[in-house]
Amino acid sequence: MLLKRMKANALLRMRTVVLCGLMIVSVSGCSTSDTPLTGTSWRLESYGAIASPTQVMDTPAITLSFGPGGVLTGFSGCNIVEGEYGTDGDVITITYHTGPGLHCDGSAIVEQERMFLSILADINSFALAGETLTLTSDDRTLVFARA
Questions:
Q1: Cα 113 to chain center, whole Å?
Q2: Where are the domains of the chain?
Q3: Of the candidates 46, 40, 47, which has an alpha carbon nearest to the alpha carbon of residue 67?
Q4: I want to staple 83 with a disulfide (CB 3.0 to 4.6 A). Which of 72, 114, 115, 140 is the partner?
Q5: How far apart are CA 118 and CA 67, in angstroms?
Q6: Does the structure show a pLDDT above 70 at 138?
């Protein structure tokens, strides 16, 4: 009888683990739906204050790509950008980190990258208009052209 109860308890625990695993897969599957940005790539054209953005230097190009499942990749001028994004209407959340890329000596390139990453960290909304993507924080903006 004791052996029978132990087998029943083990089976119940196994079912619970499987059901919890299915719930985790199901919940995480819901959060990775495609957005209007999914599958798009962009090249930064200007950045800075909303009223008077600064034109970017032509090279190196600063880019962002929005992949499936909320995967964000790009290049910030000197470093690789990797992270995640999510949207809800025109609201966007972006989390990222930078990895090693080019060795940048030019102070203007380094400053441009610093400003880009600073603004990217504060972005809270986006707008798509034709071939233009605008990412906006409370007082600053990043304006991209489709790559």
A1: 17
A2: 1-30, 40-146
A3: 40
A4: 72
A5: 22
A6: yes
Structure tokens at 110: 């380094």
Taking the CB of residue 103, how many other CB atoms lie within 10 A of it?
A: 6
Q: Does pTM top 0.70 for this prediction? A: yes
Please name the residue ranges forming H helices in the chain: 2-30, 107-122
pLDDT digits (tens, 9 = 90+) for 24-48: 332 333 344 688 999 999 999 999 9
- Separation CA 141–CA 137 (nearest Å): 6
Please report the pLDDT score of residue 102 as a whole number: 73
Tokens for 135? 């990412």
**51: which 2 tokens?**
């009223």
What is the CA 19 to chain-centroid distance, rounded? 30
Cα–Cα dist 6/43, whole Å? 62
66-114: pLDDT as tens digits? 999 999 999 999 999 999 999 999 999 999 999 887 778 778 999 999 9
Q: Does domain 40-146 have CATH number 2.40.128.270?
A: yes
